[in-house]
Design brief:
3 domains; four-stranded parallel beta sheet; 13 strands; about 15% strand
Length: about 475
Amino acid sequence: MQQLSALFHSWAGVPCEQMTPITANGSGRRYFRLSGGGRQCVAALNDDVRENDAFVYYSNEMLHRGLPVPEVYAVSHDRRGYLQQDLGDLSLYGLLQSKKAEGAAFDVEVVSLYRQVLDDLAKMQVLCRDLDFERYAMPRADFDSTAIMWDLNYFKYDFLKLVEAQFDEALLQRDFESLTATLLQADCRYFLYRDFQPRNVMLCPVDGRLRPYFIDYQGARRGAPQYDVASMLFSAKSAMPQPLRNELLHSYVGSFMNYGKEAGLEVDETHFMSHFPSYVMVRMLQTLGAYGYRGCHQRKAYFLESIPIALANAVAWMEQHDLPLPHVYEVLKNLAARYADNRETCTVQSSDLVVDICSFSFKGEPPSDESGNGGGFVFDCRALPNPGRYEQYKTLTGRNKEVQQFLQAEPAVAEFLGHAESLVGQAVRKYMERGFTHLSVAFGCTGGQHRSVYCAEQLAARIKSQYPCQVHLTHTAHPE
């Protein structure tokens, strides 16, 4: 955290005045918005140095080719942190959800953005096909038979096993090998984004309109272009109507053909379309693996909620296309029926776990555990910078914006909260797995007014957003 502040100072020429955590749904990386002296950027912290190297390399190469990706401003000496262009908070997925709430999900604006996104994708796939995948792609340079089987086993072990599906190992393996052979008959010499979905498309105002920019492509490698198109058009919670999918696919294929011809490539539209259904299927299976891991294992609500939708989509797709997956079809069909009947073992409903989070003053005693279970966490916030020492904050609490801005500007506070969230999150996941019903978390500071209140508020919001459990928040020293 201190390195990020120093990196910001080196890049911006002014000290970092504010550091605000940014929630990342499915990522192990930690993101922060840094600002000071009129300059602003997004910082990333990630212990996987190879992944960081790939992101920085791909970003620089794609910018050089005129593609809309964030500029990387600076990289720390240990390569665990870097600063990048701030693209704001509005994603294509976020816009789509707000439009749905208004009853106009796929209006003219959204469809136009999808067209632009897919045109940019086609350009990216062709222009970036010559990147140094041998050096930077992880864990393999190509989406080959080994990588495909990893994805299929991800579906097997992180979805089918976790939801306790009934299947025949030998028949499942036969289907996996058949699908792999079909996929590798496609033209696999293009840039494969790997996680091309609406959450990874940021929308920034440019000349009075929203312009798509792309993020989270550090997993890119060489592969077939059909995979990324399938990822975007069949994103489970987007619920795109099939006629619109067909229309956008046709638009994308036209762009892909044009960019390919400009680059002197022989592009066969019939060959492309013949392999598209199989790539939709492997992407759907990989996505179910991700939903199983992030949802059933890590208990993240967004991914749990997506499982029934993804199952229904996969079954419908297999019923519409002749795919060499008879056993996979039977397994998914049975699971889809089980979820529809609310008989699934990995429920999307809130668990019985109640997480009591409170703030208190060390001038008194930490709150007692009324559940009778004992245990829990007590975090001492007194080592953090204290707003109460300054006259303008004395009558305020950690719920006031001025105090929040003061604490958000302190790297030590963000680091402290990150550690607290990691510890409590681990306990929440295990408690839900084991059917426990109560966990207590307390934050204390000198007066129970500023630091403890702020930390309790922040952790409560993060636990609510990530886990399907109840969160009760109280401030014992300053209840208002």
